[in-house]
Amino acid sequence: TDALLLLKALYGLGQSARVYFKTFAGVMGKMNFEQSQMDPCLFLRKGNDGHWTYLAVWVDDCLIIGKEKDVKQTLEDFKKHFNITTKDSLEDYLSCEIKINKDKGTVWIGQPDMMKKMRNKFGEWVKGVKSTNTPGPPHTTIRRPKENEPRLNADDQSRYRSGVGALLFLVKYSRPDLSNIVRELSKCMTDADEDAEKILRRVLKFVIDTSDYGLKMKPTVPENKDIEWDVVVYTDADWGADKDSRASITGFIVYLLGCAITWKSKQQSSVSLSSAESEYYALSEAAREIKFIVQLLESMKVKVKRPVTCRVDNVGAMFMAENITTSQRSKHIDIRARFVTKMLDDKDLEIIFVKSEDNLADSFTKNVSEKIYQEHTGTFISTKEELD
Fold first, then answer.
1. Residue 201 near residue 135 (C-beta atoms within 8 A)
2. Mean pLDDT by 10 residues, the chain (388 residues)
3. Whole-angstrom Cα distance, residue 312 to residue 360?
């Protein structure tokens, strides 16, 4: 029988991406870059003057941050190993538009290409929909149709999936304000009804009307480089929000130097027996994210202020976190959530009470009123013009 020896990975094979990344990481090692233990796609190199150069890679798109001379040296080193194309400014990355105002110290991240595609695909479909000031109808939840209830036909269901998929792409990068309603819409990807479709049209209309919205960042950068960076997280839960499963909703948003950097709206995997328990699970979910963020920043040689501040609007959840008990009301709680107490004991986390109306994670667990939407999302959403 004949046999062939494969000298290089063929394009399209399952192993090709792995082989490429191993080759890329090997080259980075030759360039004296060290690979972050927290994120394998992050590489760091310390220059002779003590300054660090950071390189983040997404498939074959690289982002290099550092002193100008260090960035130029990195590009020269790259050219010895790869054929590359370069851009001198960070105006577009991974289909996101990035606008940096160095004079005011602000950054705006938007997705105009995705917005254009959504207008072309759904503009006519939502043309007659009334404009609104919030993405989701306040105090309303979406329910999946029961077995004997009518559903959308195949074509309408396909359009529904396409609309939700586009919204998920926005939530991931530049529109955290859509997180909760898009999570709800995602429950009906295989069997939506006319009510869910009606809400989808409302959300798409809102997004098209606010196509100039994006993620705003105005970091409170410390003048003294030795000052520790501040991380603050807000967590919230909506107890028993899913009317079918009675599962609660977890929501949180994390700020670094006053800038929103990560957020989540997620249905909890277990059914909580009290509002305090649901809030405690939300807290533990946020604590895991905090652990990762702190370790990632420290792997980048950034000093992080300890303990990290976590703001919660439920006293019962705070008590559960600060006290390990085996009472009838708490002894059933999953042990995986108990590590929050250890973070508190180790002074890695500090829990502070915040009023519900001031909890910036509130809109990640429920569809809020216009007043709350404007007050809360104003901390992380704006138009480009507002930052100029």
1. no
2. 80 86 94 94 93 93 93 93 88 91 92 95 95 93 90 96 97 96 95 96 97 94 79 95 90 96 94 86 92 95 94 88 60 66 91 94 95 94 87
3. 10
Would strands 61-65 and 92-93 be described as parallel, antiparallel, or unpaired?
unpaired
Q: Residue 337: in which H helix or E strand, if any?
A: none
Distances from the Cα of 319 to the Cαs of 282, 312, 330, 347, 349, in angstroms? 14, 11, 11, 16, 14
Query: Mapping DSSP to helix (H, G, I), strand (E, B) and coil, where does residue 48 land?
Result: coil
Paired tokens of 101: 């105002």
Name the DSSP letter for residue 313: S
Q: What is the reported pLDDT for 30?
A: 95
Instruction: List, for residues 281-314, the tens digit of each pLDDT value.
Output: 899 999 999 999 999 999 999 999 999 999 999 9
Q: How many CB atoms lie within 10 A of CB 339?
A: 14
Phi, psi of 229, deg, nearest 5: -80, 145
The structure's pTM equals 0.91
CA distance 274 to 330: 10
Give the residue ranges of DSSP H helices in 61-144: 68-79, 112-122
Residues 6+ apart with CB under 8 A from 373: 133, 134, 135, 177, 363
Q: Is 308 exposed, middle or buried (0-12, 13-18, 19+ CB in 10 A)?
A: buried
The Cα-based distances of 197 to 162, 175, 209 in angstroms read 12, 21, 18
Which residues is 236 bridged to in the sheet?
A: 251
Cα–Cα distances in angstroms (integers) from residue 356 to residues 312, 340, 369, in the given order: 8, 21, 13
Per-residue model confidence as pLDDT tens digits over 27-49: 999 999 999 999 999 999 999 89
